[in-house]
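In response to reviewer comment 3 from the previous cycle, which asked for concrete evidence that the modeling workflow produces usable outputs, we include below a single protein chain processed end to end. The sequence was submitted unchanged, and the resulting structure tokens are shown without manual editing.
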Amino acid sequence: MNEAIQLIIFMILLVVLSPLLGKYMAKVFMGEKHFMQPVFGWLEKLVYKASGIKSEEEMNWKTYTSSLLLFNLFGFVLLFFLQLFQAYLPLNTEKLANVSWHLSFNTAMSFVTNTNWQSYSGENTLSYLVQMLGLTVQNFVSAATGISVVLALIRGLTKKTTEALGNFWTDMTRSVLYILLPLSILLTIALVGQGAVQTFSHYVKATSLQGTEQVIPLGPQPLRLR
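The workflow returned the following structure tokens.
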């Protein structure tokens, strides 16, 4: 019964919120004014200035695709080497060993392509740093990459006679700042309201009611939810 009620509530929220979110996203990616602009607009400008991005410069499909592939190649290499050398990096409270090259390759490829498939227990294999700087970052940018691809496809279908598909770097930046980041903040508030604990402490050993010893991983809450 509870499952049915939850499903009904979810469907109602989906139907009600989809048009509102759709209109909001349209304004974001068309460069129109929206209510989140005063909050993160300064950060968007700072990103463009620091990285040298010309936000209004249109790209053809070749430039858009090469930019997308280059960005994701960099993300793959970063995540791959973070795992290979995690034993020498900070925020490794449990002194976890370096990850093997083939598991590092598999995990990096999985998260960069937004598959997020893991063939291991995250808390027993990856340090806090690798999970935050590697996996969590890819949770954002890989999703933003998918949004950017959809945007380029929509522009290509609607414009038909032009090669201008927008700007990949602008689409990525706006996806993260105005879509994914606000949604993650809302989720964070919900988790905090439910008493979720954020900590960088060592794992805790506890004895269950059956008398068996178990290790309880700590760390930032999103990592424990994965």
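Residues 128-159 form the longest helix (32 residues). We consider this sufficient to address the reviewer's concern, and the full set will be provided in the supplementary archive.
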